[in-house]
Amino acid sequence: MEVFMHPAAYDFVEYLKEATETDYGDFKRRTDLHLLRLMEAGGLTAAEVAEANTLRREMLWGHVEDSSLDQMKSEFLHWAEKLH
């Protein structure tokens, strides 16, 4: 049985795989927009919405050095690939 990913989650995963931003501010704005779209699209459980809000707060709006962009992309991608 094949499980299909929610379209907004799929868009987020594709963005993360192709993201080329090297500036933290650009990455933060685009990633935050994708997360907001994902949460507003519906289809996420309450726990997934809470996780998304935690990721936004801790990884996007907390103090993060530019050198950690690849790590952030990896963590967001790991989280997003688990969504259905």
Layout of helices and strands:
Layout: H1 7-18, H2 24-40, H3 46-60, H4 69-80
Range of helix content: 55-70%
Number of helices: 4
How many discrete structural domains? 1
Distance between the termini: 13 Å
Molecular shape: globular
> Tell me about the biggest sheet?
none
Compute the number of strand runs.
0
Sequence stretches where pLDDT stays below 50 over 5 or more residues: none
Share of β-strand residues? under 5%
Helix/strand class: mainly alpha
Radius of gyration over alpha carbons? 12 Å
**Helix-strand string:** HHHH
Mean model confidence by pLDDT = 84
Question: Mind explaining what this structure looks like?
Answer:
The radius of gyration is 12 Å and the shape is globular. The chain starts with 6 loop residues before the first helix and ends with a helix. It has about 80 residues and is mostly helical. It has helices at about 5-20, 25-40, 45-60, 70-80. It has one domain. Helix 1 (about 5-20) packs antiparallel against helix 4. The chain is built from four helices and no strands. The model has no long low-confidence stretch (mean pLDDT about 85).
Features:
4 helices, mainly alpha, globular, 0% strand, 84 residues, single chain
Q: What's this, in brief?
A:
The chain has helices spanning about 5-20, 25-40, 45-60, 70-80.
